[in-house]
Amino acid sequence: MGKAVVASMCIGPEGDLHGVPVGECAVRMAKAGAHVVGINCHFDPFVCLDALRKMKAALDAAGLKVHLISQPLAFHTPDAHKQGFIDLPEFPFALEPRICTRWDMHKYAREAYKLGVRYIGGCCGFEPYHTRALAEELAVERGGLPKASEKHELWSAGLRMHTKPWIRARANRSYWETLKPSSGRPFCASLSQPDDWGVTAGDASLKQKTDATTDEEIAELNQHAVNGP
Predict the structure, then answer these.
(1) 13, 46 Cβ separation under 8 angstroms
(2) Does 41 belong to an annotated binding site?
(3) Which residues take part in binding Zn(2+) (predicted)?
């Protein structure tokens, strides 16, 4: 008793797999007694914020006062469909090209705070420098910098000591905030085609197996991937 209840869902702006809108999901969690509601995993910071905006609008319309939590991926997922990054062909062992920069995290932290989110964190893909960026962006609001900020100078100020002048020119916030990073992969597309297997919550194929998938079953799955449902 006396403990705060936090309830978050692995859903995006399209809602859950049962067809419940994301805003209604938030309202149901709040009415069930959750003190904090929100989004975790499956989508990138900015897709999660889109979902949280819908949650906040629905909560406000229902007159419900709860705190908001955001724990997104550290991978960009603008091309993910309703189930999020698990449908991307790169999941789970080739997601590195999608990793968010620390500057993405500064932007995410600020947008989340402006939205009214006060539990701002992360999920899969988050590295220590991501978390440090969140804390540094909100240093004034938090009342100070995190301990890890002792390891570097803020907003690339350490580059002022670089031997190359074009690198020293990057020692400012605006350079990094406006940079559009390249992937260095000339034959790769910017976006992927997610797998749409046509299965949803409750489907027998989604049940956890007790034994490892056999070679024959793998072959069937591969055939399904080629031909579709």
Answers:
(1) no
(2) yes
(3) 41, 123-124
In degrees and rounded to multiples of 5, residue 134 shows phi and psi of: -60, -45
Would you say 124 is a known binding-site residue?
Answer: yes
pTM: 0.91
Residue 28: Cβ within 10 Å count: 14
Tokens standing for residue 133: 């960026």
Alpha-helix residue ranges (DSSP H) falling in the chain: 22-31, 45-61, 102-115, 128-137, 139-142, 165-168, 173-178, 215-227
Q: What b/e readout covers 145-155, taking b as 16+ CB neighbours within 10 angstroms?
A: ebeeeeeeeeb
CA distance 192 to 216: 28
Q: How many CB atoms lie within 10 A of CB 60?
A: 12
Note the residue count of the chain.
229
User: Which pair of tokens denotes residue 216?
Assistant: 């024959």
∠ CA 7-115-96, rounded to 5°: 70
What percent helix, strand, coil does the chain show, rounded to 5?
A: 45, 10, 45
Q: Cα separation of 35 and 3, whole Å?
A: 10
Take residue 122 and report the two structure tokens written for it. 């992360």
Tokens 């997104």 identify what position?
72
